[in-house]
Amino acid sequence: MINIKEDCPINHDIDQYLFPVTYITVIIISIPTNCISLYVSCLQIKKKNELGIYLFNLSFADLLYTLVLPLWVYYSLNHNNWMLSEYVCSLVAFLLHTNLYSSAGFLTCISLDRYFAVVHPLKFNQIRTRKTAILVSVVVWLIQHLSNAFILIKSELFNSTGDLVCYDVFPMEQWKSTFNLIHIFIGHLLPLCIMVLCYQRIFAAVKKNQATDDSEKQKIKQLLLTIIVTFVISFTPYHVVLFIRCIGEPENCPFAKNMFVPYKLTLALTSINCVADPFLYCFVSEAGRADVRTILHCCGKQTEPSQKSDIMMTAMTPPYNQENV
Length: 325
Fold this sequence. Notes:
The protein is mainly alpha-helical. It is built from 10 helices and 3 strands. Strand 2 and strand 3 (163-166) form a beta hairpin. Residues 301-309 and 311-325 have low confidence and may be disordered. This is G-protein coupled receptors family 1 profile domain-containing protein.
């Protein structure tokens, strides 16, 4: 059933340029890099590295998100007039939400895993297993699918100003305001706080360790800072704008018009994360780069990773053979 929406005329011209340019660029980079990341994470899983399971799920979520983007490019090029079926509209909205927040969930899992490995290597060694990682990953997927399931049930196609608008209707509906507020606090703010705390404690432990030289400490500091900054740049502006919309926009057309451009710009910005993830979490590691070289050179013999501190894989764990805190 197509919903009838009272007219709130907004100029959608920005969509015709912003999303095709941004999303096509993301698609070109994200698909091959995340496919390679999937393969590299599989190699890590074979080495009995539980972190590989989280990396696999992160890459899978990013890849699924990317594969949905062509439909949104098609929608934008059609002047925000949905030309496909109502079910496809609901499915696209569901997949975009689910994979966006699943990605944030697995980024949180990775930060916690690294925290346990570096700061408490002995205390939490028994729970840092592949079985635990699989169980946690299943829980993350279940939470995201269940929390977004009603998007599939509720019609997300609206007849507005003569066009069929999919999901992102302006002004925002009241139920979507509540729905989005929950995602803002649980899907973004909570993961961000956990990541900042974990990586701060990781660097504190690294800084105290005498086995790691100053140059390696500086590299680790830069990497951790880059991870946090990338997450903040990708997701925080969008959620700040979304929060403002949730508070002031429901059924308020003038407010919706003022928030339209900031919302669209920050929404496009979120897609950058699925491009950054493979480089920050997979290719940055010595083991990951060795696996990538193996793929690119198509050689049977795998390059041995160096013994330098490797924050994103388990190579960093051996120097920390006792509790640091």
